[in-house]
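INFO worker-7 received task bundle
INFO bundle size: 2
INFO processing item 0
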Amino acid sequence: MIICDSHCDVLYTRVFHPEETEVVTLENMKKGGVSLQVCTFFSGSRGIEKHPYEAGMKEYYEFKRLVAENGWKQAWSPAEAVEGESKAMLSIEGGEILEGSTARVDEFYGYGVRMIALTWNRENEIGHPAKLGADQGIKPVGWNILRRMAELRIAADTSHLNEAGFWDLIHRHSQPPMASHSCVRKLCDHYRNLRDDQIRAMIECGGWIGVNFYPFFLSSDGKADAKRICDHIDYICQMGGEKTVGLGSDFDGIDVAPTDVRTPADVPNILEELRRRGYSETAIQDIAGRNFIQYYSRLGWN
């Protein structure tokens, strides 16, 4: 079975918090059968004025070191995911790393970035984050960047983006967006989660949603396990999104994890819970990874 996880912050942890023990390791990926792990370049609390590009580049060089010295393998597209191997694909979380430049889009595409979360929790040149409650949509510079992303088949990631920006992407962007690490707002009323109309729009436009493993996005009391992750997956499936949903752990970007899904080695616990709920092996394979790969095929990656 091919398993894809659309978001983790291991590169940020290794570069900026080396005192912490990362959970996304090659050993854990192999134990859990994770075929494709998306690793993001994240500038953290650095706003536009604090050189986020430099932070992203430090993380890129750390990734190059993992490939050169630690046996990691880079995937240049999701289509390279295969059962029995563990590879990493690159993304950006927080478009401020691009510094408002389409040339930076080309640069990071050359490094292997295939997904860009347009914002994190700060306003940037592209748009506004959900956290600040702004009602403005994508900025003019943002549309220039999005056009170039579409030409290069880089996915537009709505996780962290405000609702106005989300609907701009649904109605005006030339390619279906995705949400790399977001949950269901009806099950946990947090600004980072997706409302039913947003989920429905993702299903209808051919987008994709990776369910986040952060307990405080899964449950109002911050308590979660594989069953609670599957509650969110099942909710999206019941809305007709059985071909739209997958896994977006946020490992190494969350300070607590579900009790029985603490590392990539534990991902099979989610799949086993889906079996207990009566999901077919075909449906489980779709949720585990095929939906993610098919989403990228709709962007032109085959």
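INFO item 0 finished
INFO processing item 1
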Amino acid sequence: MDLINLKDFSQRISDHLFNHLMPFWCGPAVDHEQGGWMGWLSNDLKPDRTQPKGLIVNSRILWAFSAVHQARPDPLFRQMADRAYDYVMNRFWDAQHGGAFWRLDDTGRVVLDDSKKTYGQAFYIYALAEYHRAFGGLPALARAREQFELIERHTHDNKFGGYIEVCHRDWTEAGPDARLSDKDMNEKKSMNNHLHVLEAYTNLYRVWKEPRVAQRLHELIRLFEQRILDSRTQHLNHFFDEEWRVRSDSYTFGHDIEGTWLLCEAAEVLGDADLLKQVEQVALPMVEVVLKEGIDTDGALRYEGRGGKIIDGGKECWPQAESVIGFLNACQISHDKIFLNAALRVWDFIRQHLVDHARGEWFWRITPEGKVDATLPKVSEWKGPYHASRMCLETLRRLRAIGS
């Protein structure tokens, strides 16, 4: 791909971010009645106020506006970031025990789920660190640091390493059913939880050069290399018992490729050149397997596999976003244009099939038959601006580096 095409790719991504994605989250998704953002909107933008307002999507909204404002400072983005910051800081925070609640009801009350899920606590840190990067100020950083201490005190496994999944409101360990969601196995540890703790601590270390954060990042990278990654297949295992014995047999291509670039990012932020080279040598074969096994003939990433076979051929939105970043990262490591072309093909699929050009944002999922799954919402506690906006920001940054 020549410089002219790189410039065209970059311009399309920029237009999409600033003229399509962010206007949706500044407009239809805002809850002017109850505060914050809508907890649930259907594909045709009809609300369901019986649905919860989740910690994950609200933290991700805060991250997105903070990150986008750094790319293009805009008073509206600052206003939206401040709105999200206020909601996350004041509605989700547990003033009695510390930490963030998992779910609020539509009015912002803590009546649905007051548990402390490590995955959600990590996203709270991720978002507050980004807000601090964008706007400064001590309260956001202080809260992120407090959250780090709570996670380390209550959820870190000092014997076997890593983090447990769920605690009760008072930080006592939850059980026996301590799953992140109904789709997950009831096991002590998961790949997904550790991937996003890694992501959060990476962002925290950007703004707080605390040696203990660096220590945990090193530990998490080792866990991915030695425990979570199946070195025979180059896929990430999903679920484990307390001692890291594997309890699952499938893999999701989106997590595989998301993991490749988040691991590289962690090593890069740590400033350890030898570690970065080591992680890149782990990441590149994983991306090659994703390209070989996960990409369909239309250029999109299929969802799930087992034993070398596809068991879910659907094309969900977030794995497409993560694959664009992962392929660009692989191109930067290898200088092989096959990965750049793969990223462009995924973007073409996103633009043609996932982007809702009529009502904004992206559809959640394209079925294996190639149709929009209209049963899935446009906004929910799991569906927000984070994956798509991050794809745009990372793509713009990486295309500049590739073209330089």
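INFO item 1 finished
INFO post-check item 1: The first helix runs from residue 3 to 26.
INFO post-check item 1: DSSP finds twelve helices and 13 strands in the chain.
INFO worker-7 idle
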